[in-house]
Amino acid sequence: MNNSISVVARIVYGVPFAIFGLFHFMNGQAMAGMVPIPGGIFWIYLTGLALIAAAVSIITKKYARQASILLAVMIAIFALTIHLPGVFNPDTMAMSMSNFLKDIALAAAALYMARVFDKEEVLA
User: Fold this and answer.
1) Are 110 and 103 in contact (CB under 8 A)?
2) So where are the chain's domains?
């Protein structure tokens, strides 16, 4: 039973990141303006690829601990560089705060997943 729960949890956690990654490729031009550094579209495609790779890694448990740590770092960077500045703008405060808090929670969950994958390696 615990193994089934683990498989479902990995799928439910990983699939949205794969979808987010696909969105980066489908809507790259529209998203490029949000990138706070030069080379906008390049970074959109690179992070899209990273999101898909992390999802595959988490679902298949191949390098899942490392992928989860890198995913947490990337999401925290998104929260701090894209969403946090909008929190201080009255016109975008509500949406930016929601996205900031969502990304912080997802980054924390990715760190937790890294710890779970670390424990599973010890038990295996």
Assistant:
1) no
2) 2-123
Q: What is the DSSP string of 77-119?
A: HHIIIIIHHHHTSTTTHHHHHHHHHHHHHHHHHHHHHHHHHHH
23 — pLDDT class (breaks 50, 70, 90): very high
**Residue 102 half-sphere exposure toward CB, CA atoms < 13 A:** 9
Tokens 């016109």 sit at which residue? Answer: 91
The two three-digit tokens of residue 36, written as one number:
């706070």
Predicted TM-score of the model (pTM): 0.88
Helix extents (H) in 27-39: 28-31
Identify which of 36, 31, 28 has the alpha carbon closest to the alpha carbon of residue 77. 36
Distance CA 97, CA 91 (A): 12
Spatial separation of the C-alpha atoms in residues 84 and 90, rounded to whole Å: 12
Rounded average pLDDT over 73-100: 94
